[in-house]
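Example record

The entry below shows one chain as it appears in the dataset: sequence first, then structure tokens.
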Amino acid sequence: MKRKIIIALIIVILCFVVYKLFIKKEKLVQASYMPVTVVLSDVKEIINTTGEVSALNRVEIKPSVAGRVDTLLVNEGDKVRKGQILAYLSSSDRVAILDAVRANEKENLSDWESTYKPTPVISPMNGKIILRNVVEGQTIATSDVLFALADELIVEASVDEADIGKVKVGQRAVISLDAYKDISVGGNVFQILEEGQNVSNVITYYVKIRPDETPKFFKSLMTANIEITVKDKKNVVVIPWNSVNETQEGKSYVLVGDNLIQNTKEIVTGIVDGDNVEVVSGLNDGDTILVKADKYQLENTTESTKGFLQMTPQKRKSNSEILAGSETTKTKK
């Protein structure tokens, strides 16, 4: 009798343990969904890249004669016009004659200086002096660079081969410099260079961007961070990018219904801006879709106001990361 009671207790305990494990498993497997209201918003696809400030046209000015620098009339940062005299040079012959006069007959120096005129250095174009490479009294050869002149400062962005097909002349860009991270400058793409560069088996192309207005703090070779807007739409149907699922055939869909019953609804997506996805067809403003609750939280929920669901703090993904993730998913399937 005692043995039967012990066996019965063991069976009861085992049943209780199995029941608890089963219920716990069911709770873990059962996903909780939260409703998200489809809204109208603005979306844009952006290419993030880096580059540098450079001169659109950079001219190095070299002396026409070897000799010595007599007088410098401009400094770095000065704006000059075409035909303006930048410096005066003495040729090697003039240097030899004037030095001999200074040593032997100083009283006649002005006469000799009037007879043997210095050679002027002329600016070949309008622009800004970005380099002064000599000082007064310096001996120079015809191969030495006296000045570097830039007509205007632009930004050259390096764009990956995978993204260059999206870039078009006229697209808007936002520029920020590492040295002035809190200041953004707008600009436009005005040229896409034809020849790419192969760096460690990665092909990149240079895209030239002209700022709307060149700030005074722009300096040649400064590192720049650039956002190029390749697509931009306003007041379109958008949903969180996490709510979009994909079939094995590559078709996009969302979940609709409630926590008890979920159904799939096929959609056609458009621009992905990292946070949101444009819905071209399949959903309308005001529709409700489902998203797993562990990734979202309600904001401003009241009886009379539907709370708009937003992602809990997550790092925003770039377009390339999102596309890379989609390709990985397709490969696995």
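Notes for this example: Residues 17 and 275 are 44 Å apart (CA to CA). The longest helix spans residues 2-29.
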